[in-house]
Design brief:
Number of strands: 25
Shape: globular
Helix content: 25-40%
Radius of gyration: 24 Å
Largest sheet: 9 strands, mixed
Structural class: alpha/beta
Bound molecules: flavin-adenine dinucleotide
Number of helices: 13
Length: about 500
Amino acid sequence: MTVPTEHVDVLIIGAGLSGIGAAHHLQSAFPDRTYAILEARDAIGGTWDLFRYPGVRSDSDMHTLGYRFRPWTQAKAIADGPAILRYIRDTAAEAGIDRRIRFGYRAVRAAWSTQDARWTVTAVHRGEPVQLTTNFLYVCTGYYHYDTGHAPHFPGIDRFGGTVVHPQHWPANLDHAGKKVVVIGSGATAVTLVPAMADRAAHVTMLQRSPTYIMSLPAEDAIANRLRRMLGARRAYPIVRWKNVVLGTLIYQLSRRRPGILRSLIRRAAIRQLPAGYDVDTHFKPRYQPWDQRLCLVPDGDLFTAICQGRASVVTDRIAEFTGTGLRLESGAELAADIVVTATGLRLLALGGIRLAVDGREVELPETMAYKGMMLSGVPNFAFTVGYTNASWTLKADLVSEYVVRLLRYLDANGYHQCVPTNDDPTVTERPLLDFQAGYVLRSIDEFPKAGSRPPWQLGMSYAHDLLKLRHGPIDDGAMRFSRRPLSHKAVRQPA
Ligand SMILES: Cc1cc2nc3c(=O)[nH]c(=O)nc-3n(C[C@H](O)[C@H](O)[C@H](O)COP(=O)(O)OP(=O)(O)OC[C@H]3O[C@@H](n4cnc5c(N)ncnc54)[C@H](O)[C@@H]3O)c2cc1C
């Protein structure tokens, strides 16, 4: 039997953008509280360390993807992966957070004991189980499998004589200079890769089953850069952050309320940036409404420029099979390829695959309901971070951290040891946690917790709304139950 070796007040799982942010909020609010971060990999940065494909970058602006507490000071608002990684690492190093990370610890199980009001967390380190205990478990493990991406089987792929790569596992020594490249996919990764590889490749073809909404945005935010020069980074940052929140919200609301207007704006912008006579409707006119799936941003129209220069092209068709030298399509057309990139997406994974148990009973995630999109019904002293799908991830991650800080303060102030969101309202009906039509979401959403039809179970996708609720809303809202040890099983406060 493994014996817990250590106790910390708060245990964070994951040292990506969210985990480092969570640690920063916690240690700023509670300098004397103990915490540790368990990180499965050997590096800080999560997504921004894992993905190494050419051109890897954000597709939302860094003034909102950056932390609230640390201004983004680079000129480029749509930033390269390495710059984002540096930002996360610098944040961790400057605040001494990096010293709290246990690298190579994969959390696999967490068991809550009401009697002790604490979690026992089991992690695997160098093949051996290790246990820690904690009063509060804060899971920042992102939303997808790190080991493999989504890889649909393509007929004949074994006979292909070229190289097949998935963007999640980019070989460091892959040289695409002078090569014919086919990128399968039409999402953010594909539209990033195509112009980035087109610089040196003989030609890059983006092969998509169906089109995606693609909007061009300046890589540099001129207003942000001017304000930073005038006011300094600290004072300019919140203004620019809000400017971008408001702009993003307006675009999202327009796409929900008047999709026709946005469709037409995006189409006309694409026509302006593509060669005369280009078949925009075949390749850039999706069948769904804007924001039913994530809208793709391209900085300074780089994808359109590569198409205009003849270095890249888009083919909208289906793969019939791989041949020895490329791909045969259902239309009968053939695409020659030396390198095929399968930008076919991610495999979603809830809570980094950690199995939860409460007082000896296994927690089945689809049977739980997410409270404020960050805690789980029936699971005490536990929070997780899942960011927005329609805005930058960190906007939500920061709010989750701020709420956790308020919650811990509330427990302290009232002498409570345990808090657990409880849904005993039979009129709350279930909703999917991510109300988003993208294929990678639809493939696995059944394995995730549910959201509910009404607050606080309803999934908020509005930053302004969440800000009011998470930063300023009451902690004791009736759905959150509090108790002291050892009156553990009995809630000391019932809803009004
Ligand atoms: C290519 C790409 C581009 C993206 N671009 C944007 C963008 O522009 N804007 C945006 O808002 N979002 C974007 N996203 C979403 C992106 O993942 C988030 O913005 C953000 O990086 C998530 O940070 P995170 O720390 O929550 O998760 P991650 O970055 O996934 O980090 C999670 C960390 O937890 C660790 N971990 C996981 N499971 C365990 C476990 N069981 N035990 C221990 N450690 C564990 C992982 O090793 C990892 O280090 C993008 C995603 C991808 C894949």
